[in-house]
Prior knowledge:
Number of helices: 14
Structural class: alpha/beta
CATH topology of the largest domain: Rossmann fold
Amino acid sequence: MSKVYFASARVSKWQYSDSMPGKLERLLNAINLGQFFESKEWVAVKTHFGSEGAHRIVRPVFLRKVVDALKAFGAKPFVTDTVRIKGLDYLEVANYNGINHLSVAAPVILADGLYGHDNLMVPAGEILGEIAVATVIHDVPAMVVCSHIKGHIQAGYAGAIKNLAMGAVSGAHRHCGWKCGRGAMHAIGEGMLEWDAEKCTYCHQCKEICPLDCIEFGPDGLIFNSDKCWRCGRCARVCQQDALVLPSNDDKFMKSLSEAAKAVLSTFKPRKVIYVNFLTEIQPECDCMPAAEVPVIQDLGIMVSEDIVSIEQASIDMLLKAAPLPASLASDMEIKDGEDVLTSLHNKPYMIQINEAVRLGLGSRKYEIIKLD
């Protein structure tokens, strides 16, 4: 049975040690980072830089606490993510959202280079075959995975598995393009984009949100570049008229997430990766969307574990017990206390990714919660 260390977001004493940064320090001390990482060892602190407008990411103060904890015994940490938009633009987005070398006290780098093509193909299982893992993630000997728990347009639930599957894999490979990168997961689970001209109001939200500039509008309507598109589904999600539909295969997509996560973890030796899940500012959508919403569930706290399955299961179990917040999308959809908020929001069978991770041997669903005093 794996241990999952947990600290509540509630403050019982008005002192630093009971603050969220203080509790994170205590969690990292409790798990004893020294048993995983060595002095002078390079350690990737994997996070999500967010998007312009999506500011509810893992806050820089928490990344700084992870960096400080690693530095305390001589490790050499850096903060990283893979390219989601053009590399220089993505570094600017990170800076807008407060992530830079000054705020986190460590270098902030792109794991797959400025162009997102620095990667290595790694065997990835029955569905994906192989996948392009970012070179820096592939080569670094150790990693702390800092995941913002939230909803997701396709995964339903986004945590550590999605952070590795989508965030440690490049958008495209230098030679075989997006079909070998994270687009492979989208393309396997998603079909061809369908456009209904009669419903379309030509608001152009779909064009504006596309990270690959795959959509244009001409005299005859929507022009869709199928070869360039990696089927991320953002265009269909933002269409308020249901004029865009992207057929999906949830089973294959969820399983491919776990396959990709396993491929990433296969590049590390045992016990060289730990996970920090932040159940804070819980969003209905991914941090790659161009806006942040009111949280749908109240802040719950922070979890730390060396078992990716256990920490994901523990996070989900805690979400299932949480009530939807008023004046949020959850209340707009009339989600009641006791209902699964994330399933109600997206209607996605997100437990498939957890079950597949167990089948692939990534960890155990049985866990023991160790709460900070």
